[in-house]
Structure formats: C-alpha cells, structure tokens
Design goal:
Blueprint: E1 4-5, E2 12-13, E3 16-18, E4 28-31, E5 35-38, H1 44-54, E6 58-62, E7 68-74, H2 75-84, H3 90-96, H4 101-104, E8 108-109, E9 118-121, E10 124-134, E11 137-141, E12 147-148, H5 155-173, E13 188-189, E14 192-193, E15 201-204, H6 214-218, H7 247-256, H8 265-279, H9 283-294, H10 303-312, H11 324-333, H12 352-363, E16 367-370, E17 375-379, E18 384-387, H13 389-406, H14 415-426
Parallel strand pairs: 1-14
Antiparallel strand pairs: 2-13, 3-4, 4-12, 5-11, 6-11, 6-15, 7-10, 8-10, 9-10, 16-17, 17-18
Helix pairs in contact: 7-11, 8-9, 8-11, 13-14
C-alpha cells in the first residue's frame, strides 16, 4: 500500500458499497473489509502479534497524525472533566480516554490544569495537552462472509450487527478502536504523511475473519474488553495467549533502554511492571528486571526493593499493568529498532533462535504457520495451500544440512553429532 506525502485531505475511500454510489448510512449494502483506526497508542508490534496469533491477514498502516505529541481538547470538555475531578491532570484525562500508558505518562496541559492556555480552532476554544509520541494506525482485515444489509429486516438491525461485529473483533484483538469507525457512512483518507514525518506499512499473512456470521455475533458477549475485570487471565507462563512476541526481542529492547536520570521511581516501576507482565513473573523476567535496575546511573541498585515490588504483583494486577508497548516506547527513545534475530549474538550461532531465524530467512515469503489452527501453509504463487508437518520437517532438515555445509569450520571434530544437534534445533 502506497504511503504518500501530503496533507490530510484529498481522495478517500470507504470499505462499504453504497446503493446508487451515494455515501449515506441508509444506502450501505455490503462490506468485506473490516477497518479500524487505533489512535490510543497501540504499537504495530502488538497489533501484528494479535492478528498473527489469531491467524488473521491484516494490513497495518500509520495514519496522518501518527507520532503526534499534542492533543487539542475542547475547553468545554476539559471544564466538564475538571468539574468531575477537581484535581484532575492531563495524565488522568488521557487515562479516561483509554490512551496507553506510554502516551499518558508524564503528559501535561499547556499552561496549567487550573489555567490552561486557550486557542481557537474551528471557531471553538480549545486547550492543548502535550504527551509522549502516540502511535496511530489503521488496520484492514478480510471478512470470511460479507456484511449484507439485505439480510436484515430493518436498517437499524443491519447497522447494529455491523457495529457489534466490529466491537467484538476489536476486543478480540485487544485494541482500542475509534468508535467513529463503527459508522456505516465513515470514509477514510488514503495513507498520507507530512514530509519528513515517520510512517509505516505492515502486512500480516493469514486468513479471513469470522466477524458477521450469526454465530460470531452471538458469541460477542464472551469477549472481554481491555482493562476490565473480565479480561482473560494470562496463560500459566504469565503471557496473554494473543501475544506472540519472542522474548528475545523484549530482552533486546530492555537492554537498549538507558536507565539514567530520566527515570524516577515511577518510571522504574513501570518498566519492572511491564517486564513482569510479559514474562509472567518467572525467573527469566526477574533476571532482566534486575539487570535493568542494576544499570541505573544515578545511584546504587536496591535488590530488596526490586524483590518487594516483584513479589507484590499478582495475576489480578496484570490487566492494568504496563505492557510490552511501554518497553518498546522507552527502547525506541534510545534508538532501538526491531532486531534481525540472525544477527543477535546471544541467540547463537546454531542455537534454536539462530537456526529458526535462518530457516525463516530462507522461507519467509513462502511458508506460514497459523497458530490459531495449528496448520502450515505454503504460497503457490496464487493462494495459500495447506501442507503437512512432515513436509516442513523435510525443509528444516534441508536447511540444517545447508547451514552445516556453509559453517562446517565452526563445528568440532564431532561434526556429525553437531550436525545432528543443528537439525534437532530446527525441528
């Protein structure tokens, strides 16, 4: 998908077909492309991991305001917020709006919460909130069966089912979707960005989404929203089932973060909480948290304080704790980029991570494993077709033999045993 330089105006599109070509809610007839805007700081890594772990094909593109650091709020809305919360801060306001912690942390009102600086926008007075860069993405998926207005007795019924399907899918993916996307008449600008501004476009290989079938709508009550008391509990390993980010990537990100004077106790606590959440409180996570804490440049690390905080977290805390996006935010601030695992020395050479990365490097545009169904797929240049596990095992053995021939000098005199271990590591 082309991402052009330009202002936020011009050509736009709708994922919905309209009767007579007139974009009105009452004229909506068909939709096969569920579309969301995620404007609250969800990272592309988390969105992609959710789609991949559920087996959904998706296109993820940054929107025009991606990376923005300010939010304009109508003065009347701010006054209502302050009336309800007399001591309310910018951080609390953004939390109320369900922004991610990596965005609302350390947010502030231009001026002061009590006496904000006011400017006129579109004829209305507004105040400004400064915050950390906020990731904003548009997500496109493919419906297994289209939404068809003709299947319903009334327009209101059709619109309600359309909205219910999108709400359910957003909750399943664990993203905060912009409610305006549930409007049948909503139009979207084609991807644009300001000259020099960051922009991104990702494709996640996978299948279609069962979103508007009768069974899918009937099951919508079973999907819990993010940050609610009904959020699905983490798996025994401590990580939510939808997260499929490799722990090596998270470790690499944390080791990039400079634990210096920018981190007060609250900042340190957020990093430790995010590590605890991702690793489920296991020993590997604790070691990483201790490594980060020990690197603090402003004083001595207190192991007792870390132990007290770490042991104080519980499974009930996790839905409201900092997530992996917090770690990625801090790491990117210090220059971190998603690593090429084959170049990470702590994964090899010839360890499981190194071998797997080499296998993926050879077959990344040909093979796909769908975790949701447990199936391997192969691209036939026309479509994805199901293949057997034994076929993939054969490819892994061929890859291992190639790697052994290329790196034979790395092995000891027991070359045969080492080659066998290399094959075992790949399969």
């Amino acid at each position: 998908m082309e991402h052009r330089v330009g202002d936020k105006h011009g050509s736009c599109f709708s994922p919905i077909l309209f009767e007579n070509g007139v974009r009105l809610s009452a004229n909506a007839t068909k939709c096969e492309l569920p579309t969301f805007d995620c404007d609250r700081g969800d990272t592309k890594e988390e969105i992609a991991a959710s789609c991949f772990s559920l087996g959904y094909a998706a296109v993820i593109v940054s929107t025009h305001s991606h990376g923005s650091t300010t939010l304009e709020v109508a003065q009347s809305e701010w006054n209502r917020f302050r009336g309800k919360f007399p001591e309310g801060s910018a951080e609390q306001y953004l939390q109320q709006k369900k922004y991610r912690e990596c965005v609302w942390s350390e947010a502030e009102v231009v001026g002061s919460p009590e006496n904000p600086k006011v400017q006129t926008l579109s004829g209305e007075p507004h105040i400004t909130i400064r915050h950390a860069p906020c990731s904003k993405y548009r997500v496109f998926l493919i419906a297994r069966k289209p939404w068809l207005s003709s299947k319903f007795d009334t327009h209101n019924q059709a619109a309600a089912v359309y909205k219910a399907g999108l709400i359910q899918l957003a909750k399943q993916l664990g993203i905060e979707a912009d409610p305006s996307c549930f409007d049948l008449a909503r139009a979207f600008y084609f991807p644009r960005h300001i000259n020099g501004a960051p922009f991104e476009a990702w494709f996640v290989a996978g299948g279609t989404v069962d979103i508007w079938s009768s069974d899918a709508i009937a099951d919508s009550h079973a999907v819990a929203p993010r940050n609610s008391s009904d959020t699905p509990r983490p798996t025994p390993s401590g990580r939510n089932e939808r997260i499929s980010i490799a722990p090596e990537i998270v470790e690499d990100a944390v080791r990039t973060i400079k634990n210096d004077g920018r981190f007060d106790w609250n900042g340190w606590y957020r990093v430790v909480a995010a590590i605890h959440y991702f690793f489920g409180g296991d020993g590997r996570g604790y070691d990483l948290a201790e490594e980060f804490s020990d690197a603090w440049t402003e004083g001595a690390h207190n192991p007792n304080e870390l132990g007290r905080i770490w042991s104080g977290f519980s499974s009930e805390d996790r839905p409201n704790m900092a997530r992996v996006g917090t770690l990625f935010h801090y790491a990117k601030r210090d220059g971190w980029v998603l690593p090429n695992l084959s170049l990470c020395s702590h994964l090899g050479p010839h360890g499981d991570g190194w071998n797997g990365a080499k296998f993926a490097e050879q077959h990344h545009n040909r093979l796909l494993f769908v975790e949701a169904s447990g199936q391997w797929l192969e691209w036939s240049n026309v479509r994805w077709k199901v293949i057997t596990r034994s076929y993939v095992t054969g490819l892994a053995r061929s890859c291992a033999q190639r790697l052994y021939r290329e790196r034979k000098e790395d092995f000891s005199e027991n070359g045969a045993d080492d080659a066998r271990l290399l094959v075992d590591g790949l399969i």
